[in-house]
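Action item from last meeting closed. Structure (288 res):
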């Protein structure tokens, strides 16, 4: 089967076959990740007994991205603190790349928490996992986001609500921008583009593929791949009325820059994937 056929089969939920060489790469990268964990996790817990805002999750995730094959290139300048990054979303590799580059905390779908190794490690970096079942209330999510912002100085939101193939941009969900209504003093919004170039569709976690199969496909891949992080011009959320306007402005800037990066029109997303739902549980029951 060709790579395209294997990718399409994975999106249908089929397990991707891995060669002997691929399993060896998975084993080698797994061993390297375990070694990084053995070094950085104890340092992280030790640091947290003495101070707040540990640098070790950022360092771990930076090196973990390299181990997984990602060569991260940063375009533009990211704000160091008091910033909400708003980004498009393709893969769990996004978390390694973005946190390794800036130390940001995240809002991510709960399925990522089940991804091998990455989910637990992302939680060390104050990732706020949004659950489809037993959903957190919006107020509780906002409190978690505020804590993450105080600890990590920045928070990244993936407002598409799911991962795509790098060739599409879904409508933005606005509920997780509720923390910007009203905006905390001094906090800015900085749109971000993640560009995986020609390997975007292979790396992308789409359709009915499981997190384990996607991790297996990425970790068994030969060689490295580039991940370009484009930090766009930040703006003040105070200049826009409410989270919907902030969301629209963020998406406008991301779409405009993504068109320039890809050099071609965006295409409709080919997969129907239920978005992460941010409504409190009682609201869902009432709606049902």
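Sequence:
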């Amino acid at each position: 089967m060709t790579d395209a056929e294997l990718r399409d089969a994975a999106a249908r939920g089929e397990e991707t076959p891995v060669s002997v060489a691929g399993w060896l790469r998975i084993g080698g990268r797994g061993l390297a990740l375990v070694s990084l964990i053995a070094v950085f996790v104890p340092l992280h817990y030790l640091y947290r007994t003495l101070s707040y805002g540990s640098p070790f999750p950022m360092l771990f995730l930076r090196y973990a991205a390299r181990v997984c094959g990602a060569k991260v290139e940063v375009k533009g300048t990211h704000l160091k603190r008091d910033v909400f990054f708003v980004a498009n979303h393709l893969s769990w590799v996004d978390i390694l790349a973005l946190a390794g580059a800036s130390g940001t905390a995240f809002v991510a779908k709960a399925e990522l928490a089940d991804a091998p190794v990455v989910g637990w490690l992302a939680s060390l970096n104050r990732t706020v996992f949004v659950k489809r079942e037993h959903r957190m209330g919006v107020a509780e999510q906002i409190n978690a986001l505020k804590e993450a912002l105080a600890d990590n100085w920045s928070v990244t939101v993936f407002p598409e609500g799911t991962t795509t193939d790098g060739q599409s941009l879904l409508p933005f969900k606005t509920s997780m921008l509720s923390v910007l209504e009203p905006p905390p003093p001094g906090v800015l919004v900085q749109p971000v583009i993640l560009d995986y170039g020609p390997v975007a569709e292979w790396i992308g976690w789409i359709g009915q593929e499981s997190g384990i199969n996607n991790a297996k496909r990425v970790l068994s891949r030969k060689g490295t791949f580039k991940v370009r992080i484009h930090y766009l011009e930040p703006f003040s959320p105070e200049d826009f009325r409410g989270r919907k306007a902030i969301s629209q402005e963020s998406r406008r800037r991301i779409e405009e820059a993504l068109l320039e990066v890809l050099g071609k029109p965006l295409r409709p997303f080919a997969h129907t994937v239920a978005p992460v739902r941010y409504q409190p549980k009682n609201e869902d029951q009432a709606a049902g």
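Note appended to the action item: The beta strands are 70-75, 83-87, 105-109, 128-130, 154-157, 188-195, 225-231.
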